[in-house]
Amino acid sequence: MEMTSRPGERRFYAKLLTLLGAPQRPRADIAQMEQAALRIMEAIGVQVLVIDEVHNILAGSYREQRIVLNTLRFLSNRLQISLVCFGVNEAREAISGDVQLARRFQQFTLSRWAANDQFETLVVSILRNTPLRKPSVLTAKSLRRILQITEGITANIFYMINSLAIDAVENGHERITDEAIESWEPEFDTEAAYA
């Protein structure tokens, strides 16, 4: 799931229940939402809860932050599940707001991609899974250009290839070409992005 942009216990459970496909009563209180989420997660055997954009916890007041962190700890304890959280550098700060919860995490920093076989494998894999009618085969020069434009940031790489794929469908080529990569201009702010 993605952490809500303005964290709070009600919004957290509403989002979780939506992702679980549960019908929601508009007037349900937090305790009812919590019990519904617990019942469903136990019934389907959830073992890991993956939360993206966990740094959004910091958008709440101190009280709201504490409540959301307590909720995460509660779910982990009650369901005996693992938590996996993703976010930008501030994610560490968000999780560290609860010492008991922070101790449960091992932190990893994603490095930026470099010009190597792993990067080429990533791009080829993305291209292979892009729903275009014709295969996209790129030269080493195009791979270097992708790396240069995206600064090796994973989200930017996916954004660029998705944008190129949309352009390929709209112009009828149905494949990503070296020429399209050479002329592509980024719309993301490279300075504000994180790996």
Short description:
It contains nine helices and two strands; from the N terminus they run ααβαβαααααα. The protein has helices at 9-19, 30-44, 62-79, 90-95, 99-102, 117-128, 140-150, 154-170, 178-183, and strands at 48-51, 82-85.
Could you outline the blueprint of secondary structure elements for this entry?
Elements: H1 9-19, H2 30-44, E1 48-51, H3 62-79, E2 82-85, H4 90-95, H5 99-102, H6 117-128, H7 140-150, H8 154-170, H9 178-183
Structure description:
With 195 residues, this protein is mainly alpha-helical. It folds into two domains: 9-102, no CATH class; 117-183, Orthogonal Bundle (Helicase, Ruva Protein, domain 3), CATH 1.10.8. The protein is built from nine helices and two strands, in the order ααβαβαααααα. It has helices at residues 9-19, 30-44, 62-79, 90-95, 99-102, 117-128, 140-150, 154-170, 178-183; strands spanning 48-51, 82-85. The protein has a two-stranded parallel ribbon with strand order 1-2. α3 (62-79) links the parallel β1 and β2 (82-85). α1 runs parallel beside α2 (30-44). It is elongated, with a radius of gyration of 21 Å. The two termini are 19 Å apart.
Q: Number of DSSP helices?
A: 9
Strand content: under 5%
The Cα radius of gyration reads 21 Å
Q: Could you tell me the number of beta strands?
A: 2
Mean pLDDT over the residues? 91
H/E series: HHEHEHHHHHH
Share of helix among residues? 40-55%
Describe the biggest sheet?
2 strands, parallel
Q: Give the helix/strand class.
A: mainly alpha
* Overall form: elongated
Q: State the oligomer.
A: single chain
- Structural domains: how many: 2
Strands side by side in the biggest sheet: 1-2
Low-confidence stretches: 190-195
Distance between the termini: 19 Å
